[in-house]
Design goal:
The complex is a heterodimer of chains A (592) and B (196). Chain A has 592 residues and is mainly alpha-helical. In chain A, a hairpin with a 5-residue loop joins strand 1 and strand 2. In chain A, helix 4 runs parallel beside helix 16, helix 5 runs parallel beside helix 16 and helix 8 runs parallel beside helix 10. Chain B is mainly alpha-helical and 196 residues long. In chain B, strands 4-6-5 form a 3-stranded antiparallel sheet. In chain B, helix 5 crosses helix 6 and helix 6 crosses helix 7. Chain B starts with a helix and ends with a helix. The chains are: A mainly alpha (592), B mainly alpha (196). Strand 3 of chain A pairs parallel with strand 3 of chain B.
Chain lengths: 592, 196
């Protein structure tokens, strides 16, 4: 690890902490029960929307109605994404004349974008029309993220309200998250990205002559059915175009992660400079980090938000440094060859397979850790080509349940489930009824929190078992041996935690994989969100319990360590055996 | 349920129109006014016609050009419509074989050069379109390019040094050399100074 590697991590963390404080305070104002000044500018548009849709903003919903509204809205959204992909050849803004997307792939993408997973089973620049990019993908990036924020706000109200029957109005929370949080931030971020070179236009693809003519050989069948190789000259290069920046901004900000191009944020038109890379990394953690501050403000004790944030950082920082160190050490398999993998003033060195020169090791390793700690799933380097231990870090971060920052909203409500488990364990030790944020944690809360913690774990393990027992599952692995198993385990970890990144060698655009991963994405997102809303509904009805001498304070370093330990123990106990067969085996495997 | 359904449907349509139409059109409008060059792909123009992009690499295999990162796109390298990496795992023998073949090709084009090869010159980029190589990888190729072009090494080295972009703000990312821009400058240099 070089000094500059450390400096880049430090710069990132410093800027991030400076940004999430105002962001968190702003979001607390947006979702306050009493109308606040920050929403004044958009209020006419907001009121107009409610009139148009027959929504009464003051109408409160109990947890069941809130969950039903959320589910309905998301299912309709998924159907719209499916439909748009299937009918894109007959719609405008399709200059490359892309055909309709296949039914299984369109179904997978629809679930993937509605659930905020954004598993990318397709290559954007060769599949999706500009209209599909905008109306289906960009719009769902906003709405799935807004859904996550709305559910989180409702869960926090469950802690904050006393003897209440309702959690707020889903339509209002969704609209406010979109209009006041996601839209303005996306506008700023997309223009910053364009200034760095991310494209934003509606032009057809541009053909340019290449500076040096090339050729490639391809094998074709002749008239008699024999395979013949023929040489194809290459005299031009086709440059893809399209409205990328507007989609990339919300893809990061909403922790969605589905790329405009196949190579995602490794593509120079999607992430052209180290500064655009920093902006994209900041955008991923901005809202999940800011919501911790929002939580503290909404429950009336800011230290509670800081404690959660601290627990996230305690796990995140060492793993980020570990990933960078593993990648900077280079690929052991190349050590015997005359290849220079040492970092110097003239090169990044390290394991550069699948990485871009402008990002090198630090900016790639940090991005990989951020995108998997949050449930973003965008990539600026190919995780499949990471070293065994460097690749273990992103995989394990997903398996921890996407609660280290996690998805917008979903990360924090997942972490709150872990916090409930943590106070329960502490309560068992001292033999008292556990309390959290002034509410008694009883049987109903424990059932829902346990469900939220264990459901993604179960999906990963069961899904992986199904995949490795079926030829259609194992046949998709691109790399031999332990690494092939890692590809399968990574895919299930990604889908079952709504992350969306991949060990992308896995050939997952098949009916089997589209179906299996689609099911995991759906089951991980909605039952978990509904369980958390049920928990919130039960909490909201309770009275506030004033802290007594026997109450475990949940803003102390002790609780930070306890919470981080619970997250790590659950993740380690569940996945160590599987990880031993994948990345650990690959690390220990003697080189031939 | 019926009321909830109507509300869901209407709100989905309205918010989709705002985020899926109004927003991207607004961004496009502002971007085309404020940053027209970047928004349209950072194209390199010669006589008003695009001859490449400063951000998208091209394939170079002739000894008189600097070579870029190996590209895993198919069917040809640096295919702009099919970005992607090799996704070869670190222990995959296919990766080691590919790296060996690339070292052999570099050595065959420059038999006298026995220095270890900078790693980015023999490993495929993530996008397959990486426009850059490290300064080390550019300097490694200077003797070959100078010989193939009949130019003094010092002159080619000076050209490379002029094209090195440092870390952004001195800390972010890595130092790098844009291969297409370097090669276009090299062609201009060769035209100005015909081969000896």
């Amino acid at each position: 690890m070089t000094v500059n590697d450390l400096i880049q991590v430090a710069v990132y963390l410093a800027v991030l902490l400076a940004l999430i404080m105002p962001a968190g305070a702003y979001m607390a104002a947006v979702f306050a029960d009493t109308p606040s000044r920050v929403t004044r500018l958009g209020a006419p548009l907001e009121r107009g929307l409610y009139r148009l849709c027959g929504i009464r903003a003051g109408e409160e919903m109990d947890w069941k109605r809130y969950a039903l509204a959320m589910l309905l809205f998301n299912v309709l959204g998924a159907l719209a994404v499916y439909l748009l992909q299937r009918i894109q050849p007959w719609l405008p803004l399709n200059p490359q004349h892309f055909d309709a997307v296949s039914p299984d792939s369109a179904m997978n993408t629809a679930i993937s974008f509605a659930t905020n997973t954004n598993w990318q089973g397709y290559g954007g620049e060769s599949t999706m029309s500009y209209l599909t990019d905008m109306l289906a993908l960009t719009a769902q990036n906003f709405l799935s993220a807004a859904t996550g924020i709305a559910v989180l706000v409702a869960v926090v109200r469950g802690f904050a309200r006393r003897s209440a029957r309702t959690l707020g109005n889903f339509w209002v929370d969704l609209t406010r998250a979109t209009l006041y949080v996601l839209l303005p931030l996306s506008l700023v971020i997309s223009l910053l990205l364009v200034s760095q070179g991310v494209i934003q236009n509606f032009k057809p693809y541009v053909d340019v002559p290449v500076a040096q003519a090339g050729r490639y050989t391809e094998t074709v069948k002749d008239a008699a059915g024999h395979h013949v190789t023929k040489t194809v000259p290459v005299t031009t290069q086709t440059l893809p175009m399209g409205p990328a920046a507007s989609q990339v901004a919300i893809k990061m900000l909403g922790t969605n992660g589905g790329g405009f191009f196949n190579a995602n944020s490794a593509h120079p038109y999607e992430n052209p400079t180290p500064l655009s890379n920093l902006i994209e990394m900041l955008a991923i953690f901005l809202i999940p980090g800011g919501l911790c501050i929002t939580l503290g403000r909404m429950v009336g004790d800011r230290r509670q938000g800081w404690a959660i944030l601290a627990a996230m950082l305690v796990i995140f920082v060492p793993l980020a440094l570990g990933c960078i160190a593993a990648e900077q050490a280079g690929n052991p398999a190349l050590q015997a060859l005359p290849v220079n993998q040492h970092a110097s003033g003239l090169q990044a060195g390290g394991n550069m397979e699948g990485k871009e020169t402008r990002f090198g090791i630090a900016a790639s390793g940090l991005f990989a850790t951020i995108t998997t700690a949050a449930s973003c799933g965008a990539v600026n380097a190919m995780h499949d080509s990471f070293t065994a231990l460097g690749g273990l870090v992103p995989m394990w971060l997903m398996q921890l349940g996407e609660v280290i920052f996690g998805g917008v909203g979903s990360g924090l409500y997942g972490m709150l489930a872990f916090a409930v488990v943590a106070v329960f364990i502490a309560g068992l030790m001292v033999g008292r009824t556990p309390e959290y944020l002034g509410k008694k944690i009883e049987a109903c809360e424990m059932k829902m929190a346990s469900l939220a913690v264990l459901l993604p774990c179960a999906l990963v393990v069961i899904g992986t078992a199904i995949a490795v027992m079926t030829p259609a599952g194992t046949g998709a692995a691109a790399n031999p041996g332990a690494h092939g198993f890692s590809e399968i385990l990574y895919a299930l970890s990604s889908a079952s935690n709504n992350n969306g990144s991949a060990f992308a060698g896995l050939n997952a655009n098949t009916p089997f994989w589209n179906g299996l991963l689609g099911a995991c994405m759906f089951l991980a997102r909605y039952p978990l969100a509904i369980a958390m809303l049920a928990l919130a509904g039960s909490l909201a009805a309770k009275k506030h319990v004033p802290a007594s001498a026997g109450t475990l304070p949940t803003h102390t370093p002790l609780f930070v360590v306890l919470l981080a330990a619970v997250v790590i123990v659950v993740g380690a106990l569940t996945f160590l055996p599987a990880l031993a067969l994948g990345p650990v085996a690959e690390y220990l495997m003697p080189l031939h | 349920m019926g009321k909830l359904f109507r509300q869901a449907f209407a709100l989905l349509l309205s918010l989709t129109a705002i985020t899926g139409l109004a927003y991207p059109f607004a961004v496009t409008g502002i971007a085309q006014l404020a940053f027209p060059n970047q928004a349209n792909g950072s194209l390199i123009l010669r006589d008003g016609r695009p001859i490449g992009s400063a951000l998208i690499g091209q394939s170079f295999t002739d000894p008189e050009y600097f070579w870029g990162r190996p590209s895993a796109t198919t069917p040809q390298p640096y295919n702009g419509t099919a970005s992607g990496g090799s996704n070869l795992g670190p222990t995959n023998p296919a990766l080691t074989d590919a790296v060996k073949a690339r070292i052999a090709a570099l050595r065959a084009a420059d038999p006298g050069n026995h220095a270890p090869v900078p790693v980015d010159l023999v490993t495929a980029s993530g996008s397959g379109l990486d426009p850059d190589i490290s300064p080390a990888a550019a300097l490694y190729q200077v003797p070959r390019v100078a010989r193939a072009r009949g130019l003094p090494q010092a002159e080619v080295r000076t050209l490379v040094n002029r094209h090195i972009a440092g870390r952004q703000f001195g800390v972010l990312g890595e130092p790098r050399v844009d291969v297409l821009e370097l090669n276009l400058a090299l062609d201009t240099l060769s035209v100005a100074r015909p081969r000896r």
